[in-house]
Design a protein that fits this description.
The structure is a homotrimer of 370-residue chains.
Chain A lengths: L6 E6 L6 H4 L9 E5 L2 E7 L5 E5 L13 E3 L2 E3 L6 E2 L5 E3 L14 E2 L1 E4 L2 E5 L22 E10 L3 H8 L18 H7 L5 E4 L3 E11 L15 E10 L3 E10 L12 E13 L5 E10 L7 H29 L12 H18 L10 H4 L1
Antiparallel strand pairs in A: 1-11, 2-3, 3-4, 4-9, 5-6, 6-7, 7-8, 10-11, 12-18, 13-14, 14-15, 15-16, 16-17, 17-18
Helix pairs in contact in A: 2-5
Chain lengths: 370, 370, 370
Amino acid sequence: MFVKNAWYNAGWDYHFTQSQQNGLKQGKGALVARKIAGERLVLYRKPNGQIVALEDRCVHRQAALSLGVKEGDNIRCMYHGLRFGPDGQCNEIPGQEHIPTKACVRSFPVVERDNWVWVWMGDPARADEALIPFAIGPSHPDWNVKTSQMQVAASYRLEIANLADLTHLAWVHQGTLGGPDLQTRAKFTTIKPTFTATSHSLRTEYVVRDVPISSFMAHLFPPETRFDLWFDITHTVPCTWVLHFRVFLADGKADGEPAGQLIADTWTSQAVTPNDGETVDYYYSWGAARHCEFPGLSELLRDNLDDAFTEDRHVLEAQHVRVREKPDFPTISIIHDNGPSRMLRVLDALLAAEAAGAARPQPLTEAAVA
Amino acid sequence: MFVKNAWYNAGWDYHFTQSQQNGLKQGKGALVARKIAGERLVLYRKPNGQIVALEDRCVHRQAALSLGVKEGDNIRCMYHGLRFGPDGQCNEIPGQEHIPTKACVRSFPVVERDNWVWVWMGDPARADEALIPFAIGPSHPDWNVKTSQMQVAASYRLEIANLADLTHLAWVHQGTLGGPDLQTRAKFTTIKPTFTATSHSLRTEYVVRDVPISSFMAHLFPPETRFDLWFDITHTVPCTWVLHFRVFLADGKADGEPAGQLIADTWTSQAVTPNDGETVDYYYSWGAARHCEFPGLSELLRDNLDDAFTEDRHVLEAQHVRVREKPDFPTISIIHDNGPSRMLRVLDALLAAEAAGAARPQPLTEAAVA
Amino acid sequence: MFVKNAWYNAGWDYHFTQSQQNGLKQGKGALVARKIAGERLVLYRKPNGQIVALEDRCVHRQAALSLGVKEGDNIRCMYHGLRFGPDGQCNEIPGQEHIPTKACVRSFPVVERDNWVWVWMGDPARADEALIPFAIGPSHPDWNVKTSQMQVAASYRLEIANLADLTHLAWVHQGTLGGPDLQTRAKFTTIKPTFTATSHSLRTEYVVRDVPISSFMAHLFPPETRFDLWFDITHTVPCTWVLHFRVFLADGKADGEPAGQLIADTWTSQAVTPNDGETVDYYYSWGAARHCEFPGLSELLRDNLDDAFTEDRHVLEAQHVRVREKPDFPTISIIHDNGPSRMLRVLDALLAAEAAGAARPQPLTEAAVA
């Protein structure tokens, strides 16, 4: 149901308060409980700042380690006092000299990058940092990125399909990310993207030309102003979606790269982390390039994502209930399913490859994308 | 589990605001989501006032049509913009010329009558308006009927059994519909109704003689006044219960039709709509004839139903939990089970006939009722 | 899953208001609904004060008797008016002369002792009052016992294991029942109890020497004062845990019975009643001997139990979720599992003996305890 040999996002770095370094008393506040791909994890920072991820389940009687305490590099279960090192090995059993080898909880590789915390949920020997998706985080010097998060009660497969086809901006998000008028709606739903596939991601590029600005920014420009909107998306299975979104004054051309004045140059980085089959944690950010920013733009982008993803949440949660009720309901496919189908095929290929004991699947041919 | 070839009640007509006709902006408010007999429906009025009922599940990816918008006679799914006509056929797929024939959601026959909205949940070719039960609605010129509704967390089979035996007025409703004293209680529990059966309904008539008025009306009369109460009930499987309830000054006779002065002449119409096996929507009304009304009587009747059905709700919800826990618990039958057993036998006969592909079952003989 | 031929605790005697004797109007307040070992019960006092326990499920249609009313020694179902005697036999069916023999609900033996209400959930012929565990109740003349209660969303097996090993005081309860410092923690986790086994209980005795007082009492003594704490516990399967807890000024000795001044002499009696496999009702008390009491001590003891059992509740509820998720998770055992394993072995022996139709199992040998 979940690809295990993959990096999953466990949240923003600031969720993991490094109490030893900021003078706060060490305590439970620095222990973070997460559920990722069906597994319960406890995460915490060591005094040197590195984050540890262990299964949140004591090997003695399944008590929650996340109700325990940090002790230096270690975590102590506060039910019977077993203490575990960052590798998951028990190194103290109060009242007992002998510590069995199997007194050990699972430890998961963790990498911090771009202010995101990544956890590898599969075989640690296969953890490959090169597979961590590109992103622009809030500490990047060139972009003023703002962050947020949300939980959604839906399968992550529905989230993947949602992100893989932006024609839904015309409908779900007409009052936020989409355009307010019917002509803009038509342009959004007749885009012909350029697809570039790899084994586990899909790059989608397209320009929506000669349209008003998105609804949430409409108050910033004279109503008659026309824009070209350039989308450059890299969607990586199972978990990450990154968009380089640029707004230009309309150049009056029918195709090619936009040549009008660059009005806004932005990146949004988004991670969908399945808790299990029923809910996801969604971590996302948006921000503008400092070179052509104006005051409040990045906050406006982030706040608008909160609104827009609440719109998605309503749609996806109602859809999830219906899919659970009728998993075999006969559906039809439409032209815009290309992206979603592609991403779910890649996901299924990864699941099948992993079930067969193989490494990650080979890149699909371009033909398979069309 | 549910008879499909039957009319189910989807609520009062005023639940389906006809925005085009009253000047309100068209919007989601005019889309009504219901769950009836296990199916999710979305209902809305066309500009000509007719109500449409479709499966609330887009044929593309199962998004909720009830989160969409009305467009003239059509409804548009606001996930990817598919538009459906009142027959359920998709008539627009944004960005795509070809519309497959199977791009179609189920459509259900709808009839408005007596201010109630009726939906036929089975084969549309079998929808027969003659099967819609008689009722007195709030717009009837001769009766001042007031409406209400309630949801109850119980199987509709328990609701049917509840309505089919009014001796429970003596116990559940002693402070509302029933009488306050032990003698009245005894009279309620020794009634000998006249039964008249059809294939899918049961008419029950009886008079409770020489009793005080029901508790909820006791403040309106001198305490020593005695009354004859005439009940004339038509209970139709699966969904409807209608009572002509008349209050007379006691005539001192032992039997026959009451001959004292008519004090109140009322109709209550009630519909039990199973959402699924666990909850029902209950739509009900009560009102007095305008020819012998006094101010506040109809409101008093309706408010009392709210109180009384809350009493039933507590009983039925606790019973439902217990039946779910021990479906095979050995129970006994009592003399008053005649009505409930009869109605559940009719329901089971309809279910069996439908499973066998037949039309509605033939009328049971009178002997079967006794 | 539950031993049926055993006494289970249904709460404190004051939960069962004897309305006939205190002048209050008889009513639903005197009908108490409980779920014990998977069965729903209704309990009430007869006018003579004796408590009746019946299955809370009318034999007619499974309505809740606990929504009924008391009538003298009887209880009446307020759905259709069936009346049952304290033996569970129906003795009135309104409107009907004949009462079938099988119109009967299960009746359960009840004994009040030590202000606790005990119900025998199995074969009434086997109900043996000698099996009711010893306890000290709030009406005991020599002890000033205060009572409380709590519901915990965990299997009773986890509660049994929790109570059977008090080394968890060092961890879960460091700020309440346990000691605040590391040295005390070490002493709690290296205790060598004396075990004495019977067929269905385990007595555990140990002294923790030369330690500060428990955290919750620390404000009462100069911080440098040292104490010997004497624990004498009798833990009876499935339901009861009684502790004679005594605090002495430290005598400076390494072993033997404490010989210092007796500072506090207390009893705590605790009963864990499984509602079903998912929750327990926990009834408990604590109090000090009147011969060496000081004002407020017993209230302090009881209030501290509320705090401490809330600590346990958090641990046990998180553990319960995890055990349900991974019932076959491979765990390790530690030296302190002796008590919990012993009690769960006794529970499993009782379950197996009962399944085999036998009486209670024979005492295990002392060797089996070690």
